[in-house]
Amino acid sequence: MEFFLLILLLLIIIGLSSFINHFLPFIPVPLIQIALGVLLASLPLGIHIPMDPELFFVLFIAPLLFHDGKNVSRQALWKLRKPILLLALGLVFVTVFAVGYLIHWLIPSIPLPAAFALAAILSPTDVVAVGAISSRVKIPKTIMHVLEGEGLMNDASGLVAFKFAVAATVTGVFSLAEASWSFIVIAIGGLAGGAILAFLIIRLKIFIRRLGMEDVTIHMLIQLLTPFVIFYIIEHFHLSGILSVVAAGIVHTIYRDRDRSPAMQLQVVSQSTWTVLIYILNGLVFVLLGLQIPSVTNEIFKNPLFNNWEVSKYIFIITAALLLLRFLWICGAWKWVWLFKKQFQKPSIKAIGIITISGVRGAVTLAGAFTIPYVLADGSPFPERALIIFIAAGVILVTLIVASIFLPILARTEKGKPEEQREEIERSAIIKTIDAAIRSIRELMNDDNREAAVSVIATYNQIRNRLNNVSDEYSKKLKLVETEIRLKALEAEVHYIEKMKNTGQIDRETAYLTEEHIQRMMLAVTNRMHYRRLFIWSLIKRSMYKLFVPKNEERLKYRQEKSKKLIQLKVNMAKAAIQYLKEQMTPENEHIYLVIIGEYNEMIMKFKLAKKGADSNQYIKLQRELRAKAFQAERDEIQNLYEEGEITIDVLRKIRKQINIREAYWMEENSVHVH
């Protein structure tokens, strides 16, 4: 029961961190979560969670890196492979030696092999922490791809170097040739093993699907277990479990891109499930990191052998050395890559500064530090173990704070006039929410709900077109194109009526009424003022007819029958127009065609509603479900934009209000159709 309450408390803290970040958006969520973890550990509740590094890696690092591997751009990784490898391999090994010697010189009580071990565990950047910090900053895509690639690859190189440095400290024996060969085997073995196991798991899922088991729950369970199983198996063979889950994630993405099976529901469920899981795991990583800090600091601050100011000074000096070395390495390495590969843009000082500051250390560093043994081979205590763990924790905190303060400053773009900029940001945000809603509808579209989906998409396209009409010239041009398409669709209706007349399927009176209807619609397209006058006159005539012409049962029955036939004919005419529009539609003009197709679908729906048929009720139900999904997609997108720092809280509230108004209006408008 205590364990359950502890897990519940940690989850509440993760939710609380997001709540606090909503009101203090300038403080990154990881720092809030670390602070809450420190606060929880400091309270007299007796809460202490010992850091089990092996469990930590398999439980947190494996799924997080598997998810990152699934979502990283493969093209960008390959294109930027040289800068990434220079950071993930070159910088790591340079850091081990340069910072290792600095640590030994700075703190002589730490032997050189142990200093190398500390430098090695400080060398990997944390891709989770980098992602969390950079989510609120507009970092150029190329730089972000480099940071992601570095974060995915340098964990393995840093941990291998750390492992050999610790072994050298414990046994007093070190072989550079053995370490180099071991690194190659561990890295390549991890990548190959992860890819092979991922391929076998995919084949298992295909086999299960061929047996007719399309249950989303089973496939989702296999997907969730994949990173844990692969990491455990690869680590059992003493290869790189970290690289194995990254490789597995990339293999799963390749399969997903090539998969042509109708598993849209699985993709939707997978995306939703992983979003929640990654949110929880990310939060737990930083909260657990915060929980460890009080015990680590107390061991140093309460020890009379250590001067608190001196120990704190070590942290700042080592952090400064790590950042300076990173800056110099990037200057030299990226310039070297640029000289030999001219397609890469020559790096600016600003870009180098962003990559330098983004070298945040995180949970991998602390978890690795806790794996340091307590004793050496001869039974004596490991030299300065507590101090090494304290310095690692301190460097993590300092790099997080430095990145939180300086990244927004370095990544800041030039600003125009505040009012114009605000309007443009708001317009861009609304377009992104509309696009998110359209994407969500497309993902859910199938043969059963296609008409309802097209209708909803058409409504959103109308809003999008209005927002895109930023210039009068463009607006006029768009209007002319739209008018031409509408007239062509009406011509398709005329051709359909002509065909029906020629085959004798409609009588002369019905043909006359439908042709008159088409003429009125053409007038509505070309001369709206004239159409409105004609429409008002038609309403007056209809009212006068009802007022002065006495009711007759036979005439009424005849008119009702005639009206039903006419409605069915108009439905068929609309379908003919839709068929024509679909044949003429191209990716370039799709946004205009879908608006008109949506209007025709709405017309068909209204005709069906007039007949009170079951199909219309089903149509309304499907449309209502799709609308609900679309509105939620809008809200999710606007929240993401706010969390990524692209919009202010005022813009968030304004657009949310607009979404609520549109939703309320739509619900009110359609409430008469809900039974």
What report would you give on this structure?
The protein is an all-alpha fold and about 675 residues long. It has 3 domains: about 10-410, Na+/H+ antiporter like fold (Up-down Bundle), CATH 1.20.1530; about 415-445 and about 610-675, no CATH class; about 480-595, no CATH class. It is built from 25 helices and no strands. The two termini are about 45 Å apart.
SSE blueprint and pairings:
Blueprint: H1 2-23, H2 29-42, H3 53-71, H4 74-79, H5 81-106, H6 112-122, H7 127-134, H8 141-171, H9 176-210, H10 216-236, H11 241-258, H12 264-301, H13 308-340, H14 349-357, H15 363-370, H16 385-410, H17 418-444, H18 450-468, H19 472-502, H20 508-526, H21 528-548, H22 553-584, H23 590-611, H24 614-643, H25 649-670
Helix pairs in contact: 1-2, 1-12, 2-12, 3-10, 3-11, 3-12, 3-15, 5-6, 5-8, 5-13, 6-8, 7-8, 8-9, 8-11, 9-10, 9-11, 10-11, 10-12, 12-16, 13-14, 13-16, 14-16, 15-16, 17-18, 17-24, 18-23, 18-24, 19-20, 19-22, 20-21, 22-23, 23-24, 24-25
- Beta-strand percentage range: under 5%
Mean pLDDT value? 77
Number of helices: 25
Counted beta strands:
0
Largest sheet: none
Radius of gyration from the alpha-carbon trace, in angstroms: 33 Å
Class of the largest domain in CATH? Mainly Alpha
Spatial gap, N to C terminus: 47 Å
The third-level CATH topology of the largest domain is Na+/H+ antiporter like fold
**Could you name the ranges where pLDDT drops below 50 across 5 or more consecutive residues?**
671-675
Give the number of domains: 3
What is the 3D shape? elongated
How would you classify the helix and strand content by structural class?
A: mainly alpha
CATH architecture descriptor of the largest domain: Up-down Bundle
Order of helices and strands: HHHHHHHHHHHHHHHHHHHHHHHHH
Helical amount: over 70%
